[in-house]
Structure formats: structure tokens, C-alpha cells
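Quick one, T. Sequence first:
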Amino acid sequence: MSYAHQGGANYQSVPNPSDGSFNRNMSGNPQGFPAPGRRSTGDASGSASGSAESGRSSNSPMISNNQGGGGGGSYVGSQRDLTTNGEYGPYSHLRKGSMGKMGSRPGQGRGAYAAGGAAAGATLGANLNQHDAGNRASNYSAASSYGGDNKKYYQPQQDGLLWDGKGEAEPDDYLHNPDSKRGDSLHPCSARGILNVLALVVIVTGLLALFAGYPIIAHYTKRPDNTSGFNIGGTNGSGQVPNVPSILGLVDNDTLPADREWTNPDGIKHHCVFSDEFNTPGRTFWPGDDPYWTAVDIWYGATGDYEWYAPEQINTTDGHLQITMEDRPTHNLNFRSGMLQSWNKFCFQGGYIEFSAILPGSPNTQGWWPGLWTMGNLGRPGYLGTTDYGKTGLNWLPGMRLPACTCSGEDHPGPNNNVGRSSPEIDALEAQTAQGVGEASQSLQTAPFDLAYDWDQDVAVLHPGGGTKINSYTGGVYQEAVSGLSPIPNKAYELANNPTFTTFGFEYVPDYDNDGSGSITWYIDGQQTWTVTGASTPPRPNIGIGRRPIPTEPLSIILNLGISEGFQHIEFDTLQFPATMKVDYVRVYQRDGQPDRTSCDPADHPTADYINRHGDVYNNPNVTQWRDKYNWPKNKLIDGC
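C-alpha cells:
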């Protein structure tokens, strides 16, 4: 195969003068090679050729030491020469391509490289000759540039180490083309591309139809019900209530007919408007579990309790509700217990409410704080932002943001700004012990306060046989306590010899006319204990406060078991864990012949819109002050209007 100098090629072959073939094929100066000691002045048209006779492969690397880029020469290298004293000699890194694309390339007649400039060629040739063990006399003769060893070397091109790439187009060259203007950026759409686009259109259209189109179409094509059904429990237009076990009505189906009526000592008959017998086992009260009750997941910080209220502490077992206090650290508090609320689910205005319960511990146990009580729906127990107090007149009052003198246009729940709104509290039971005797604190928590919390105790009625006495505690910064202490039967305790469910309740008549005509009477085990009327909290002109009427607000129901030094001193040695308060039922009765008032959002005392507008406070127990979220409404007394 012939290796010819091809316009601009930078390498050509050079014979090894010590090789035998050199002597056989060359006489005197080989054709195209300059004489020793002289520079060649020939042109660059020389060629190297090989023949079958020489026995050399056409792929044998050809080596050049053309120092001047002048006359050509003919030589066929030997593969044998490449392997003598090593694979490629001491400059094998040059042959293996470490200086650019210097190695032989298939299909290009390996070794057909053009020499560089004369000076550069001479320089590299001189460097190579210094390594050679043969004739070192001439720096110009290719023949004398190689001594006795048979190694052959590549002379790197001097005007650029990389392969020039001419005539070597490869299939992936377009990937490396830096020219962004190739003119091939647009292509005709393929069938596959069209199908991909159509598939995306179908998917997007289907999603829009499902989540946007269907609801809109359903809204405008829905047929109106042919009954004017309403109310919880499935009441339809005919007034029939279906007996569906999974749907709880206001009155529990397990409430016996005889228990659906109640008559007070004055002979006034009442009918049951709400009941829960807790007979179904396994009920839980996590948020959303029950239509009327919710077990809260909070710390009751208002009284500095030692327990965390957790929903898992409340369930129904053996036909009754069970609230368990455990000595189990939770959220950095020592104990865990439960609080059940009907807040914003079931409320009532007026009537008689009765709880049947067995209390934890015994009369000798001091520290448990079981509670069976009610509170106005505008305040949510444990959510301090809804029950905090602010300056009104001469007092700091719980939840008294909304007096009857609220300025027009200020934030107010209604029905108008001339109706005072608050969150009163009536307690059927807060149990405590004193000297081995259990006592029920039965109270009305009210505001504004009398001077020194001195409500008019002379007009209170202590019923004979009840053993009730006026509570020496009359209030604090949150409320004034109109309270009596009544003895609790020993049988009402969990650790009694024969624990028996005992009833605790109160009947109240709201003072809708604000004339002092309302009243509250408390009961234990069906017997009246004591009564308070509006006369006990009359107007106090000397300190600028009006009458504190018997509550007219819709009241929600709360059942809980707590432990706190804020209620009574705790004797931990007397406590046994776990402790349980059991509730057999909760029932609410209202007078016959009068409309039932069982809404948390009645027209005369609405709450729903106000609660919805301030949901972040009513649903976040970490908000402890109303002012953290909203401005305090202005009133005529303090701010003027």
C-alpha cells in the first residue's frame, strides 16, 4: 500500500537506518532523503511504498523524521520493529494517543502524517536522536537520526496536536456541531407525535370534565327533593323519623318512655329534648366521630391543670361513658385524661339537665376534679382566646367583649349591638372533698362582678334536707362564683363498697326580660339542694354595673376529669391510678307547651356566623388572647361612639 503526502498532511514515514531492510532497499542516500549533514531542499511530493515482497503489513505504522519538510522517501516499516525492547519504545505515550489523536486510525493508512515546519522538525528530530543509541552526528539526516535500536517514534505535528478531521465525517458529528443555525430545527410531525398530543388532550379534557364540568352540570340539573326534610336525625316532610341505627336523633332510642318525661317539684311537666344513654359499646369521640360530642386534644391552661386532655381517654364501655385519668406523662404533663364537649353541636336554652355518674376515688381521696357543667356557646372551654377578659368599666371580665353598649358597626354576633353577649357558666357538679366528705360545688359563674364578689346571699334558698351551704369561694379574675356546696352520697364514688350511679342536675329559667325573674335550682339524686334567682345579682349603681340576669345564652355541655391545685389542694398519697369517671346518661328536658330551644344558633342569640368569622380563634387552643387576632370592639362606655 502506498502512503503519499496528501496536501497538508503533517507526517510521513522515516526508515530506521539500523534495520536490515533499510540497507537492502536503499543505496547511498535513499530516494527522497537528504544526504547526511545536509538539509534537503526537495519538494513535498515524496512517497513511501511497500511491497508484498518485503513481508510488511500495510497497517504498519510509518515514522517520519523529516526535519525540513523537504524531499520525500520510500520506506516500509516493520511490525517487528515496533515490539523490540518494549511494545512501542520509550515514547509509547506518543504512539498511544496521549498527545491528541496521534495513534493510528483505521482506514487512514497508519503513519501517513505530514511533517511540520523545518525548524520544528529539526528540533524534535534532535530530541529523538539524543535518546537513540546509534549515530548522533547529524541533526538533519533521517538515516543518521536513529542508532542501533529498532524503535520507531511518531513525530507530533507542530502546528496543532489534534487530528484535523478532514475527510473523516462520522455519524455523530452533528451532535458536536457548535453551529446552532443548522436549519434542521423544524421537522414534520410524525404519527407518533400526533397521537401523543391527542392523548394529552383527552386526559386534560377528562380531568376538567370530572372536577369542573360534572359538579357544575350536577348543580343545575339536580332535581329538588319532594319532601321538605330538615333537622338532625333524618326528619322528613311528613314528620316521620326513620329508625336508622347509624343516625343518632336528639333523643336516644335507648331512652325509655318513662324517662322521656320529667316533672319538677312544682308540678310543671317537661319532655325530653335530648338524651344520650351511651349504651352502644366502643364509641369514640375524636373530632368528626360523633354528631353531638367532641373529645378535645388540649391542655386546659386556664386553671393550670396537671393533665393533658386526649380523645383516647374517652369511650363507651359496659353501657356507659368512661373518662379515665392515667399516670402517664403526655406533652410534658404528668397525667392524661379526657374532656367531652357538645360545643357548637348541641346547645339548649332553659330547662332541666341531668347527669347520672359515678365519681372517681372516694370521699377520702383529695385531688380529683370531675366536672359536669355547661357554658355559653360563644366561649369554647379550653380555647382561651374565646374566653379571655378585657377591660370594661371597672372590671376585668371573662369574655365580656360584647356589652349591650357596643358601638354600631363594631364586630358583634347580634342579633344587634344593643344585646349584651357573653359566655356564662352553670355547673351541675364540680366535686371536691373536705375532711373525708365529698362535696359538690354547684355554681353560677357570672360577670360583671359585685364589689369584693359580694353577691346577695340572703335571697338564696337552701332547701331542707340537702345539707347545702354557701361556698366561701366567691370568685376570681375570670368570674364571680354564685356557688353552694352540697354533700355527695358515698355510694356515688368508684371506690365505694357498692358504687351506684347518682344524678346531678339543675333546672333553670332564663331571664329573657331582664327583670330578675329567672332562676336556677340544683339537684343531687333527684332532690333539690339550693336555688338562686336574679335577685341575687341585682344592679349595682354605685359601681356602674347593671343586673346580671340568669343566662339566656345557648349553653353547650361539658364532661371532664381534671387535676389541679387551682381547684383544691392535692394529696397525692390518696390518689390511685388509673381513676375513672363513669356517666350512665345525659338528658335535657324542657317545659311542655313551649317551643323547644335546642339550637346553638338561635335567632335571638346567634353564634354561627360569629364563630365562622373567627374560626382561627375557636379552633386553635394556642391562641390565648382575642387581641392576638382581632381588635377589641369599641363600646360607648369606654371609647364613645
